[in-house]
Amino acid sequence: DARGRLSADGIVHFDFNNPVKQHLLLSGNTHFRGLRYNDAHRLQLDIETTGLNPGAPDAGIILVALSDNRNYEEVLGARKMPESALLEALNHRIRNRDPDVIEGHNIFNFDLNYIQVRARALNVNLPWGRDGSELKAGNGMRRYRVGARSPSFRPAYIHGRHIIDTYHQVQRYDIGGHLESYGLKNVVRTLGLERGDRVFVDGADIHKTWRDDPGRIADYALDDVRDVRALSEMVATTEFYQTQVLPYRFQDAAITGPGEKINALMIGAYLRRGLAVPRPQHSEPFGGGYTELFASGLFNRVVKADVESLYPSIMINYGIRPASDTENVFLPMLQRLTKRRLEAKASLKKADTDADRSYWDGMQGSYKLLINSFYGYLAYGRANFNDYKAAARVTGLGQQIARQVVTMLRERSARLIEADTDGVYFVVPSGVRSENEEHEFVEALSRELPEGIRLSHDGRFRGMISLKAKNYVLVDYDGRLIVKGSSLRSRRDERVFREFIRKLAPLLINRESDAASALYTQFANRLVGGHFDREDICRRETITEKTFSNPNLRRLAAAAEGCKAGDRIAVYQRNDGSLARIEDYDNDEDRGYLLRRLHDMAGRFRGLFGEIEFDRLFPLQKQPAGRQLSLF
Question: Could you tell me if 398 and 406 are in contact, meaning their C-beta atoms sit under 8 angstroms apart?
């Protein structure tokens, strides 16, 4: 086709890949304008099956759970109900409930794919579209943006309805990487959405429990759709409100990166004026943001000051826009979004109901994400109006302002810890004693910054451990813990060691060295005695092409046999040094390795102690002789 030929010939082009997007771009119309999130009719769907492979000889859907945000809940299925009748009942419910949005957790790669495969095998049609058309599988795989990553999924489409996958949305929501996994149960528990009476059934026991206690499976599945509904209201609202501004369907906005969103706004503005669109500039190197570590160690009475929306403020106040934006669309668009956000924030402060607070918070959050994407757009390689010189000017001015803040803090006897273009951490001067005085101190600094640039008080902390740039631990005055940086917190670390760091850090901030040593000994004894769940000692790995081609990853490749790129598996180290999947666990973990890992985790705080003191508090424990490997 034409698009394929253009791509094959290396010709830069803008792809109107569906008529809906074309209409929205050329008309300026958007979806859901003026609606709140709960005004849209959202249906949650979850299936329970006899296995994971819909093409297996014994494959089948045994139950479908449905709910919506109109107080509807239902479980379809019975032990003697034919699978074809179950699918027909599902068709009827979707037509009857007529939702705007269908939601599920991993709904693309599992639920919808499984339903389509089983429907084909049983010769059952799936007329889910509002025009009576079939649930349609997309061609090939699509990708969704999660920061710098672009995982793939099997797309599906329903005429007149949007499909939202909370598995995708929670990854986009988890910008800081705080969640150890994105499975529904873990996410709901970690985000504080779990209900006390929630029913749990292990995945391996679904089929047996369905035989022995079908009511329990029905309760379990209903809890799944309730969880999806609650999770959606936390992680998908931003994309919904962006849909009211962007020329995208909700389903497409939910997987699109920020650069593409701004690009669509720019292109739409030009095409509606009947004007040509420029080609993207070739990439050019330019300086990055400002980062400087001034001191490491343990500090008390710490404040974080933040320049509010630094890069957008610089672009507006210094009039920085792409050179190719001859119609001056870029800056007025940024200014309008900024104005809308300020209005939404003002309404949020006045809101006196939970519904109003949720609405205005969702609105201001959606505007914030778009506003903060304008700078990145300047240096986005596929942006039609990109401008690397403009991006360099923004970062240069950002560095100047950050350094000005640092200089002012030094002049006022604050002890600097760390600074970057996101903010600065410092110990307040001795004359600043209360929270009000902290705010006054920061406000006085703000008044000396260039017009339109505002410094705000962004947090106060009882203690901070700074190890290296962007790697630190904070404890606020309510005892809440914040851990940042790959050397302290990584989803690839085993859960038992993340727990150790969470418990150790507050003790170190409180200067309770003996209690920290006792905690270390407690964890060492726990590892030696095998007092842990198997999930505590596994780490999660994402399989890539390099997994199978890099000789340094041969242990992981052996454990990942049968996997494909993009799959995630949990592995642990056996006492023979090999890696194995956690589902194959046989009480054969390498406890010596776990003890070394524990010592390494404690060693990340070595700089807080002298060498002799550290070795006394955190000695490397030895593996018991009974667990040593035999030579024969």
Answer: no
